[in-house]
């Protein structure tokens, strides 16, 4: 089981989740993706899990526990809509039930590690602790990412959580100097290895192209072929 968190919103967390799921499916694994809270999406509208299935393949099992129409934190969205909030116990129970029947379960959070699910301040960190599951941090490539990644990792380690590694969720076609240099520094900020760099715009790819680029962009730890040292050298040469 892996808990997927981001350093913020729009960093490529869903794309990274789908990429990991796609490689696991390609290895014949039974894969489940749990989205505890989907915000900013009305009933009947496609959400993050629909994107995961579209990209990774129909073989992935998906489950969503709550859906809130406002694009806010789950707690704020629940408060505005009058719908019930989520607690870490309910999320952990759902994840454990899925994991009992699957080889890999991915739990995709909403935004960052401390985004609130309920009025008690419970967040994805509490879910990861309850599950005893390692965290994958999905980060943006550019300026500011080192601080956000270091803060996420520090919170995780202070709470006794294991950070498995960091993945850059959307690498630009023309990276700036900060993005290239951050490849060297992200492992230090995370206190964990760089486990992948996925190209920006990957969500627009067809299934076969998506799987091919996921394999190239993710570490062998996920079943991919990504070599962080070779990628970093190549990016540096082009700068």
From TrEMBL:
Its EC number is 6.3.3.3. Substrate binds at residue 39. ATP binds at residues 10-15, 48, 108-111. It comes from the Bacteria. Pathway: Cofactor biosynthesis; biotin biosynthesis; biotin from 7,8-diaminononanoate: step 1/2. Mg(2+) binds at residues 14, 48, 108. It catalyses: (7R,8S)-7,8-diammoniononanoate + CO2 + ATP = (4R,5S)-dethiobiotin + ADP + phosphate + 3 H(+). Keywords: ATP-binding, Biotin biosynthesis, Cytoplasm, Ligase, Magnesium, Metal-binding, Nucleotide-binding. Its cofactor is Mg(2+). It is found in: Cytoplasm. The active site is at 35. GO terms for molecular function: dethiobiotin synthase activity. It is an enzyme of class 6 (ligase). Catalyzes a mechanistically unusual reaction, the ATP-dependent insertion of CO2 between the N7 and N8 nitrogen atoms of 7,8-diaminopelargonic acid (DAPA, also called 7,8-diammoniononanoate) to form a ureido ring. Belongs to the dethiobiotin synthetase family. Homodimer. This is ATP-dependent dethiobiotin synthetase BioD.
């Amino acid at each position: 089981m892996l808990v997927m968190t981001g350093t913020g919103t729009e960093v490529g967390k869903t794309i990274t989740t789908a990429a990991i799921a796609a490689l696991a499916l390609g290895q014949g694994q039974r894969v489940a993706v749990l989205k505890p809270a989907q915000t900013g999406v009305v009933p009947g509208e496609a959400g993050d899990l629909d994107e995961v299935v579209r990209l990774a393949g129909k073989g992935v099992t998906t489950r969503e526990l709550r859906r809130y129409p406002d694009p806010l934190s789950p707690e704020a969205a629940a408060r505005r809509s009058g719908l019930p909030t989520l607690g870490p116990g309910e999320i952990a129970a759902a994840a454990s039930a899925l994991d009992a029947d699957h080889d890999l379960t991915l739990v995709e959070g909403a935004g960052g590690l401390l985004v609130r699910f309920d009025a008690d301040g419970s967040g994805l960190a509490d879910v990861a602790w309850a599950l005893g599951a390692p965290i994958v941090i999905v980060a943006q490539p550019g300026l500011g990412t080192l601080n956000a990644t270091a803060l996420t990792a520090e919170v995780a380690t202070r709470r006794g959580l294991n950070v498995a590694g960091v993945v850059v969720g959307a690498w630009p076609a023309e990276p700036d100097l900060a993005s290239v240099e951050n490849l060297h520094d992200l492992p230090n900020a995370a206190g964990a290895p760089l486990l992948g760099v996925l190209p920006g715009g990957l969500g627009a790819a067809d299934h076969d192209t998506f799987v091919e680029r996921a394999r190239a962009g993710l570490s062998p730890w996920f079943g991919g072929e990504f070599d962080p040292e070779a990628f970093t050298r190549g990016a540096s040469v082009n700068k």
